Amino acid sequence: MRNSNSQALLDMKAAVGRIGAYAASDNQKNLSMAEDAVERNLVILYEASKRISPHLRHGHLWARLAKIGERLEFQYYEVTSAEVWAIVDQDLPDCATVIDDLIAKVERDQKNG
User: Fold this and answer.
1) Are 9 and 97 spatial neighbours (Cβ–Cβ below 8 Å)?
2) How far is 72 from 54, CA to CA, in rounded Å?
3) Rounded (10°) angle between helices 60-74 and 31-50
4) 3-class secondary structure, 79
5) pLDDT tens for residues 4-41?
6) Which of 3, 7, 22, 10 is closest to 87 using CA atoms?
7) Contact indicator for 6, 109 with CB cutoff of 8 Å
8) Could you give the CA distance from residue 72 to residue 76 in angstroms, rounded to a whole number?
9) Is the CB of residue 58 less than 8 Å from the CB of residue 42?
10) Residue 56 has what pLDDT?
11) Which of 15, 17, 76, 95 could link 41 by a cystine bridge, Cβ 3.0 to 4.6 Å?
């Protein structure tokens, strides 16, 4: 995988993996650091999603990524901890599945010419 779709999807996959690792932390002392790290990786996820070709972006997931990404970048002061963790709990599993499916599709398309 070498094209811009591929790299963006790999960046998204890495961000999802990091978010999962930060969210799994049980250390209450580091909870605010974990939340900061999750927020940063949600922004990375959003920015990388904008680099994917429009024909690959579809469904509610992309709209949700755009909404939270823009809010974290431009209205960060309005985003609550509850919203951040709700995204991690509710949207991240679907996001990981969609990203994996798209990576497989891009690889197949590249292989088939």
Assistant:
1) no
2) 22
3) 120
4) coil
5) 889 999 999 999 999 999 888 766 567 888 889 999 99
6) 22
7) no
8) 4
9) no
10) 85
11) 15
Place of tokens 């591929």: 6
The token pair at 98 is 């969609």
Q: How much is the pLDDT for 38?
A: 93
Name the 3-class secondary structure at 64: helix
Encode pLDDT of 53-101 as tens digits. 888 887 767 788 888 889 998 998 999 989 888 888 988 888 899 999 9
Q: 25 is written with which tokens?
A: 């932390």
Give CA–CA dist 32/35, Å, rounded.
5
Please, what's the b/e burial string for 39-56 (b: 16 or more CB within 10 A of its CB; e: otherwise)? Answer: bebbbbbbbbbeebeeeb
Tens digit of each residue's pLDDT (9 = 90 or more) over 33-66:
888 999 999 999 999 988 988 888 877 677 888 8
The structure's pTM equals: 0.87
Other C-beta atoms lying within 10 Å of the C-beta of residue 101: 11
Cβ 42 vs Cβ 68: under 8 Å:
yes
